[in-house]
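Researcher: I'm preparing a figure for a lab meeting and need a structural model of a single chain. I don't have an experimental structure, so a prediction will have to do for now. The sequence is pasted below. Please return the structure as tokens so I can convert it later.
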Amino acid sequence: MAGIRVYHRHNRSPSKVGQDQDSKRRKTSSHRKLKTTRGTERILLASNGDISKRDDKEKVLQGATNFDSASTSLMRNNLTEVPMVRKSPVTTEREGPHISPDIMDLIISKLPMSKVMQMRTLSRDCKNTIFRSTFINSRRSAISEGTFSPVVFTTDPSGALHWLGFDGSSWLKLPPLNFSPKHFPSPDADLFKDYLVACHRGLLCINVGKAPDFEKIIVCNPLKQQVKVLPPLNFRRHPVLMHLRVYDTGHYTVVVAGSAAMGNEELSFKTEQYDSRTGEWECPEDSDLSGLPFCLNEFQNGAYYKNEISGEELLLCVGFIESHGRGVLVYDLKKKKWIPGHLNRLIPLMDNGRGGALGCNFASTQIVEHDGCVYLFSEQECGNEAYFRIHKLNIDAKSSNKMWVIMMVEKRSRGRGLLVYPEFTCVPFDDHQLAIFNTIEHTIETIDFSKSTGTALIRKETLPTLQGNRFHSLNPVGFVYRPSFTELVCPSSSCDVKTQICSECERREKEKFGGG
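Model: Understood. Here is the structure written out token by token.
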């Protein structure tokens, strides 16, 4: 009879077998699911009780910050393939009671940036954590999410735009720029470069409009995947200068000037300034550029300078100053107009050895802001010789007088002479350091101005693995990217966390862009 019992135990009816298998699958599935209100907390806390009732709450919060410090950069992981968080080895099988969203947001805010992005893949509630006030307020006091300079752009086979940044030791993939194809169309695959791009802190400002159509300027936070479409310019055109400035109060301003379109000289004088608090572009009557038409003839971001005594805020850019040559034009951000008087801001040319600069010319010029100072990097050619020169613009805080001080001169072999993009660009690097970036070979040469014996050159060879086609912005990239969870594209209004697009921007876009 025992054998018969064993036989029947292994030969149950088909219906009974199906029921047992379904039950088994349901039990297995229930253990695998990461529920928002229970499973997520189990991974985060490895606890059976509500954290708000635990005596060791402070230890738990402290433990959340003690992750591998090497993971503090989000870019260590490919953001398009973020790995799932595995079950903690101290996780128990029992699920604790519900934890309030505020507590969960507070805990997630203590994690390194890479871990925050991994947690967002677990559930919708975790995904929306970075938009809630508890997380944002806690994150404001956090250390920097990272500093990246220089940066390079690439396009994948689908045409989507990506970028990489150098964090001081290696090249890392930055938050994707293809999160909203509707507002961020793919660059033209047939062009070597496209888009005028400005950046400050964690926000990007990009003109994604394509000629012969008008401009379409957006502001986005790649880390939060938020985008805002700015209103059309009062004078529709593709500007040559575009500058973004984010303030500690949370608002930002965008300045555009000049025009890339030949044939309409009047547009080349126009300057407009956008304020995120009003949501409008301003173009005062006395804000036009003075001097020759198209005196701004190079795509650029300009450099910001603040006078700590007078409080004036200046935007400096490179332009042609009538017949005198190339110099620095100065725009007052508060008064919204250009400051006259340019002769004392002419960019010095090399002496040709015969007591003059005859026969010398600029191959490229780029103005850079770093550590509150303004630098001018230039490639100058004198006969068969080429030189790198870096000047510092000393500005007297009391009198506002400006004077060039030479910081570096280095003889170089002639470059490849790219006609569409400079072979070398100058970018901010570490404290008291600038870097000369070879845009072809991807090498970085740092210049340290803190040495008492003069500048120190340190050559660093780097070659990032670029998947897809190399791509350039219209302007030489001279900015530093600092990812941020706290900076908003719409400081005065809330964003829809489902689409990360401000409802006010959507309404404005439909009215002024016809819903496109």
